[in-house]
Amino acid sequence: MPFFRPLLTALAALCLAASAPALAQETTTPAAPSSQAGGAKAKGSDAWHHGLSLFGDVKYPADFKHYDYVNPDAPKGGRVRLSAFGGFDTFNLAIPRGEVAAGLNLIYDTLMSPSLDEPSSEYGLLAESVRYPADISSATYRLRPQARWHDGQPVTADDVIWSLDVLKKNSPFYAAYFRNVTSAEKTGEREVTFHFDEKGNRELPQILGQLIVLPRHWWTGKDEKGNPRDITKTTLEPPLGSGAYRIKSFTPGRSIVYERVADYWGRDLPVNVGTSNFGEISYDYYRDFAVALEAFKADQYDFRVENSAKNWATAYNFPARDDGRVALETYPTHDSGIMQAFAFNIRRPKFQDVRVRRAFNLAMNFEEMNRTFFYGQYARIGSYFQNTELASSGLPQGRELEILDSVKGQVPPEVFTAPYRNPVNGDNQAVRANLRAAMKLLNEAGWSVQEIGGRRVLANKDGKPFTVEFLLDQPTFERVVLLYKQALERLGMTVTLRTVDTAQYENRVNDRDFDIVVASWPESLSPGNEQREFWGSASADREGSRNLVGIKDPAVDKLIDQVIFAKSRDDLLAATHALDRVLLWNAYVVPQWTSTSLRYAYWKRFDHPSPLPRYSLGFPDIWWASSARAGAGSDADAPAPAPKATPDAKTAPTP
Prior knowledge:
By secondary structure, this protein is of the alpha+beta class. It contains 19 helices and 27 strands. A 5-stranded antiparallel beta sheet has the order 1-6-7-9-8. A 5-stranded mixed beta sheet has the order 3-12-11-10-27.
């Protein structure tokens, strides 16, 4: 399963989304690696291990000094300025209410930490080791004795147990993510054992390694005014952390600055050597992507991932780029696939017929979009696991065919008879042929062009017109939808486009109040439990789940279980191919476009290891400031002053 950081920095979220370039940045939920203990057999082992990996043994031995891709002598200090979008009104990540500040994950440590040069491996951070039995019915983590909160108190087993409990109780997302964990108990002075409700789920031990541990004594204590803290409510009181950074200052909704903790307890751990090099990391908030681009060019922040092909081709011709002060680079992506698409809300009756959904795909002229808007930079997505070995191809054979035979009669018959291919447009003849095919499907589904109110419109047998609304949260996607709209209107549909602010968009999506939205689902090289969150029946009606489409299909559920309980890499590939093929032929989405490289621009004030790790750009974690121009932000030996809020200047311009 993909490595999941519950609170990615805004930059990291964009880096993941960048594998699916678009006209507007997409919010993506990163994803998490899976679990076999390093050095253990595939069946598991009750011995203690310093790392976990799905692909057999971990790369680094128990006595490793640092990751190969870091510079262990990287200088500490300097400042990096990043951008975020919208605003924030809380520092509480345990509840779904409020907008959590960008970068809040910087102040917390997890039980384990990922390696960036392995596709799905993690090594001990708060935990020094982990073990689980051969049937994978539980997992036990042993904490490091030196692990400390920023106030000097130790990180305890009680903190771990309490964190799991409050996250599951207060957040629908965490409740789903850790739903197979039935209980946690203290089984030693520094040991916590997690019990699972099913056996053989190879990912569950590693999912627990991603648990953000919260300070129980702080959250159950009192604030400076003597009022009890309440983890069920939003708060702008800077929380106590255990990570490499703490909050230094902030302006609610507008900016936040993190400073490196000079006496951070874990700074010399092998997983941390050569990382967290910047003295300060700051975020300024913007409400418009075009404004944010101009702010970057005006040297208001330092690093930008560019998801717009048009911007990449035309918007960076400015003096600082011409004279070499700004660099434009690309980074090949190796660690993930992506499905980015126009996603239907099939809870609505008009989208429940697969023929209607296939008609939408026939009407989308990607070739014209690529030529007109994208400068030929993209390729059409043809798999939920695009650009990886997990993508289905050809006709099913061998083990994949065996798996599909188990759901035969419950899936589209084309799964067995034809390789999935998106329709190709691009010239007038192809466009006309595809629109004719789309109309034929709509007619078969009970829709026909009728004269209603002096207009010829697509309507059902009761005379109800076919209307569809595209819901967006940024105007940068509008031009694509407007081109798509023209084709759909030729079929007789009544098409509207509505762009709303981020808060309204999130509320409508969470309430499932939409027809079609733009969505993306990143996939790692080891898919697993997150597939239930993406496509499983249990997540279809849960508020805030990633099952935006509303899929409730027993056959899909069975195929997801085949992925989760695969006993070998070959079995996993076969199960993933089968799942991919069924999702594609069900036409739950209209696939969009992708690239195999991440595009980024930055002011040349930083250095990084060479070569960079294979599976992540690693910015800003393994980069470092290369000159005084990167700002002060140096590490002070003395403890930093308490975090404070900057007065909210009402007359200040909005970013």
